[in-house]
Amino acid sequence: MSGLELFIFAVLIPAVGVYFSLWKGKKPKNYIFLAISILLYYGALFNIKYLYLFSPRFNFIIAPIVYFYAFDLPGLAKFIRNRVAQIVLLLVIYVTLVFFIFLAMPGDYTTKFLDPKIMRNPEMYERIKKMFGVDDPWYVKYYKHMKNFFNLEMGISFSEYPKKVEEIIAERLPRTLFLFLASSVLSFLLGFDLGKRIAWKRGGLVDKAATFVGIVFWTIFTPFYMLIIIWLFGVTLKWFPLSGFITPSKWFDAPFSAQDVFLKLLWTELFLLVMWILGVAVASKLKTIKAKKTAIWSFVALGIVLAILYWATNKMGTYALDIVYHLALPVIALVTLHFAGDMLVMRDTMLEVIKEDYITTARAKGLPDKVIRDKHAARTALLPLMTSFVIGLASTVSGGVITETMFSWKGMGLTLLEATTSQDTPLAIGCLVFTGVLVLFAHLVADILYAFLDPRIRY
């Protein structure tokens, strides 16, 4: 650490914290929490062994949380502080549970992945076991595991040696995100729009037919349904490839890897999502429904045009189309499965919302049905669906085991399954822990979204 960095981190940042506490602090707890947070901070900064738990990085996480507990924060800020503290605690509990689940699994992974010649040499085998800590007490293994986790050192995969776990996750994650982000957004939009329409005209033929179709897709056995999709579109009609995510023959002379194209496609997908969100934000400031729809579609159309221009000029367009071609069939399967649940949730919530007094008041004022449905009822009914969407989006990182297995899509779900069945403990733990972090973060995002979407909620 250079002299300037030492001054900034060891003097300037703590001085700002102390000044703020002295300026705002009028209670003894301010100074108590300040002292604890300073000890935690310096323990991590100077790597003082007895002043940090697990690792210095863990102290850097909890020190600001402890510091802000000294202040009476207003509303949403107080809620976020409390939720972040809960999430850190839940993260520790979750990582601990994952560790003990794998610790309780029978077998010794050294007997599976070591060379048989080494196994015949008792001395060499014992040295390897000692190096891996196989015979260490459980508490020693647990401390090492937590220390490595908070140091972001997930270990080396046994089944894909010598790749590091974080490298494998970085490779497989874009494939899963690309697949499930596209299907989740499409199913969300379809389910939201259809759900609010059939709920508003409940009891009609369209409502009954859509509800029946939704229940069928919601309750159907997923592997069986995906086999039907593969048989219909891949075998019989031959519209789409049966499995995989690229056509190997088209990539022999490619000047770049499929991973590079995946990453750029993922960024393109995120760009289109941001353009849609910007359109929704602009539309929220407009008054008429026609103007709102125009704003949203204008932003979406602009995003699509810019994306097409980008892929048409970067020499990767042909390869990207090959990936999208392989993506089509699993997306169709996922959208038809997930939209059913989103539609039913939206329909049931809308049926409850339209009974509220403020909907009756809006009708009494003579507002058009579309305005009441879209501006008043649908916004409130969106809350459970938004929560389901945000949390579901995070959980799909590991929840796509069935989909990725059926379509041989080498993403996080299939990686988790293969790591578990082959007793590749570091990789399996890495996949599970990474998913847990995303789900916990998604819960925080969903709670914050509630405050913005529902004016009745005040923290």
TrEMBL record:
Domain spans labelled ABC transmembrane type-1: 173-450
GO cellular component, one term: plasma membrane
CDD domains assigned to the protein according to its UniProt record, in alphabetical order: TM_PBP2
Parts of the chain that traverse the membrane: 6-23, 30-52, 58-77, 84-105, 177-194, 215-241, 261-283, 295-312, 324-345, 382-407, 427-453
GO biological process: transmembrane transport
Pfam families in alphabetical order: BPD_transp_1 (PF00528), BPD_transp_1_N (PF19300)
Membrane topology note: Multi-pass membrane protein
Keywords: Cell membrane, Membrane, Transmembrane, Transmembrane helix, Transport
Domain of life of the organism encoding this protein: Bacteria
Cellular compartment(s): Cell membrane
Predominant subcellular localization, coarse grouping: membrane
InterPro entries for the chain: BPD_transp_1_N, MetI-like, MetI-like_sf
Entry similarity comment: Belongs to the binding-protein-dependent transport system permease family.
PANTHER family: INNER MEMBRANE ABC TRANSPORTER (PTHR30465), OLIGOPEPTIDE TRANSPORT SYSTEM PERMEASE PROTEIN APPB (PTHR30465:SF0)
Protein name: ABC-type dipeptide/oligopeptide/nickel transport system, permease component
Native organism: Fervidobacterium gondwanense DSM 13020
Top-level taxonomy: Bacteria, Thermotogati, Thermotogota, Thermotogae, Thermotogales
